[in-house]
Amino acid sequence: MNIKRSILLRVRVVFILVALVAAAIPYRIAQLQLDEGDKWREKAETINFQYREVPATRGNIYAGDGSLMATSLPFYRVAIDPTIVKEDRYKAKIDSLAQKLSAFYKDKSATAYKRMINDARKDNKRYLVLNRRQIGYQDMQEMSKWPIFRGGRLGGGVLFEKVEKRYRPFNSLASRTVGFLNEDEYGAGIEYSFNEYLKGTDGKALFQRLAGGSWKPVFDAEDVKPENGSDIVTTLDVNIQDVAETALRRQLVDRNAEFGSVIVMEVKTGEIKAITNLQKNKSGNGYGENYNFAIGDQGNTEPGSTFKLLSILALLEENKISLNDKVETGNGAHKFYDRTMTDAKNGGYGTLTVREAFEKSSNVGISKLVDEYFGSSPSKFMAYVDKVGLKEPVGFQLVGEGKPYFKKPGDKNWYGTSLPWISIGYEIKLNPLHTLALYNAVANGGTMVKPMIVRSISKGNTIQERFDTEIIRDRIASEKTIKQLQELLEGVVIRGTARNIANADYKIAGKTGTAQKLVNGRYTRKYYTSFAGYFPADNPKYSMIVVIDSPEGFAAYGGDVSAPVFKEIADRIYALDIELNPSNQNQIFQAENNDSKVPFIKAGRGGELNEIFEELGVKAGAANAEEWVKMVSNSDQIQWQNNETDEAKIPDVSGLPLRDALFILENKGLKVNYSGKGVVKTQSLSPGTTLTQNATINLVLG
Questions:
Q1: Which of the 8 DSSP states describes residue 481?
Q2: Which of 230-239, 589-598, 601-610, 611-620 has the highest mean pLDDT?
Q3: Are 295 and 376 within one domain?
Q4: How many domains does the chain divide into?
Q5: Does residue 564 sit within a domain?
Q6: Which percentage of the chain shows pLDDT scores above 90?
Q7: Distance, CA of 606 to chain centre
Q8: Which of 386 and 50 is assigned the larger pLDDT?
Q9: Least enclosed by CB within 10 Å: which of 332, 517, 586, 660?
């Protein structure tokens, strides 16, 4: 009995508790709706609606001539709110829309697209991404005319969500210099170094959170528009850049080298016209721009004999020597304490003048002179490193410039052999940019200018910041010393280790460099080869350095490997530069006969020819701006005929100036050799024949 009474008591208690809870629920609902409704509605608004950042359009990067090197192109992700469309319109047009989507994306049937949109409409889904593939602006314009979509955002529910992508019109040209930026805003090159200018200021817009965690833009009057980024105008010349990359790549492949770098700089201004870095891919198949060896820490290495220019400068400035003084190199070996210095030539050079020691790049000759006159005061020699501006970085405009490394007399790692080896470019580290700055200063009459790669920052037609030529050292040496150094550098090409690149049309001045590679503390038979110099030697306009690391094959020295690349690039720049070689361009306007009433131009790009004739006031038939054309008549009005260059055939480049012929042929994968000046007269491969990659074509100009 007591048990029954106990059970009944417990049941009554549970019943009362359940009743109280049941009564509390509607009370709490009423309280939430009436007393706390405003509070929670505001909370819901905060959760489901947010002002989110709208990325600004990134600024463009231009070459010095205005050629576009990097830009942001708009792409679009296509989504729809299928609940917006009115029922009668939806039923009438959904089949047509589904067919359009299927035909465009080619990933689903029209039935599948219709089912997907129908299901979203039935489930009252306010946001449906139709396809993850992004479309271009022209496709977006066309889609906006499709059934249902033509009603726009408010009538058709279509959403074209803008997504910007970085695009390079010249593909991989100067890719490491133009650089990149990842999602964490870390990268390299101009994109990274000038990101604060390029990125602009993001805006804000109202977004609604939908089921599944996606966000849909809600157009609101309080949206803050983004401020687009500024444009960067570089000093690069795309023609010179293309020539430099082509020549370097060819030599790297031929010599199976590890990597190579080229910098081309304008002597007076310090403006870099080309900078290329090519490294063997990890797979060993081809070369790509993976690191900027020209300026970065990994490019810091023992320069070898190009540093002998500094050694001779110090000796001349101290009035220790004259160029005709004699130095005994003996059999090509000389012992400094416990180490033996050797020359490249077996058996040595015997007795040489200072001039000959430099031209032949005698290690023994240069190191003996430096040790004789600075051995008791090595600090005096090292002071010239600082005097010429090589001790510290130049303050280049791109992030990541390597710091030069020089031992100091008195340091723990300074030995009796340090000075002789430093004098020929060992036990120090310089990157190609620093070495080029020294050679450019000699070409510039002793004035060292800071290398620069960005000329200005602008927005629209307004220049926000301009970068002018900056002088690092007014004079690195006396006028007399500079002239003597110029004589020596010319002599290297005329009589010395680079006589294989002497050119009859213009003079080249420079110095070869070959440094043994230090691997695991031991010098190996692998070499770091280089050639630094300038041209034309009698009136320098361009300076250049070429370095190639670990080339294979016979005679893997600077004069055999890097110097020919220098010459190939210099030859083509000379042919392209009207200021250096005006006769090449003047021939374009020579008439075939004296009775002609119009200038005689055989061929060219339509857009450029239109501009020329408009400026001259000459009547000419309209030429497609993007097409290569040939002249078919020479009368009162010039007529043009398309000169097809896009087919997989050997193109006809007759009548074209060398610059245009090189552009067309090299872009087709042909190797080009040429002789003469002017426009193309004949070509070795007949126009219209089948194109073979890496074939060689010989051009005769006249």
A1: H
A2: 230-239
A3: yes
A4: 5
A5: yes
A6: 56
A7: 28
A8: 386
A9: 586
41 within some domain: yes
CATH number, domain containing residue 667: 3.30.10.20
Q: Based on the domain organization, do 143 and 60 belong to the same domain?
A: yes
State the DSSP H helix or E strand holding residue 608, giving kind and residue range, or none if neither: helix 606-616
Give the DSSP H or E segment for 180.
strand 180-181
Q: Tell me, yes or no, whether 259 and 219 share the same domain.
A: no
Asked if residue 602 is part of any domain, the answer here is yes
d(CA 179, CA 397): 13
Work out the pLDDT band at 597, boundaries 50, 70, 90.
very low
- Residue 94, CA distances (Å) to 56, 105, 161, 529 in order: 35, 16, 21, 68
Asked whether residue 378 falls in the same domain as residue 477, the answer is: yes
* Domain residue limits at 18: 3-49
pTM of the model: 0.74
Amino acid at residue number 373: Y
For 534, counting Cβ atoms within 10 Å of its Cβ (0-12 exposed, 13-18 middle, 19+ buried), the class is buried
Pairwise CA distance, residues 416 & 371, whole Å: 10
In sequence order, what E strands does 55-157 have?
61-62, 68-80, 128-135
Residue type, 476: I
- 496-510, 531-545, 680-694: the lowest-pLDDT one: 680-694
> What secondary structure does DSSP assign to 316-375, as a single string?
HHTT---TT-EEE-TTSEEEETTEEEE-SSTT---EEEHHHHHHTT-HHHHHHHHHHHHT
pLDDT at 291: 93
- Domain boundary residue among 186, 212, 232? 232
